[in-house]
Specification:
Elements: E1 14-17, E2 19-20, E3 28-29, H1 31-43, E4 47-48, H2 51-56, E5 65-72, H3 81-86, E6 91-95, H4 121-128
Parallel strand pairs: 1-5, 2-3, 4-5, 5-6
Length: 129
């Protein structure tokens, strides 16, 4: 076969975070690093995209776009809520609905992942506003 095989990436890159904090954890990102990453993306012209809207539009290709998500609804994401708001980046928080206001000590959690508090109902409502 001659010629170059090329592929074009289609879709939307999704930045996914769990915990935010200085703690040594395989799921934690240091707040300064998170802030620097978000600032670099926005300042370089990348466009933040609301994940829900993107799905509703049929998942189109968004050149230069990215979505931001937080898995599990850990309370530590409150540490960077101001950074997200300042850069006007829509974020999707995936909650463990049966554990809202509890902690992350669910069955199957790896032993090297520390138990952390989850967002409470009022915190979820405040973030949504």
């Amino acid at each position: 076969m001659t010629g170059a095989w090329t592929t074009r990436r289609v879709g939307l890159p999704v930045l996914t975070y769990h915990a935010i904090g200085p703690e040594r954890s395989p799921i934690a990102t240091e707040p300064g690093r998170f802030a620097d990453t978000l600032a670099a993306l926005v300042e370089s012209g990348h466009r933040p995209v609301d994940l829900d809207d993107w799905v509703a539009r049929g998942r189109p290709d968004v050149p230069g776009g990215f979505a931001l998500t937080f898995d599990d609804g850990l309370r530590s994401i409150l540490r960077v809520a101001d950074v997200v708001a300042r850069h006007r980046v829509p974020a999707t928080v995936f909650l463990v609905s049966a554990r809202i206001g509890s902690d992350s000590a669910w069955p199957g959690q790896p032993s090297n992942v520390p138990t952390e508090p989850l967002l409470g109902r009022s915190e979820v409502q405040a973030l949504a506003a």
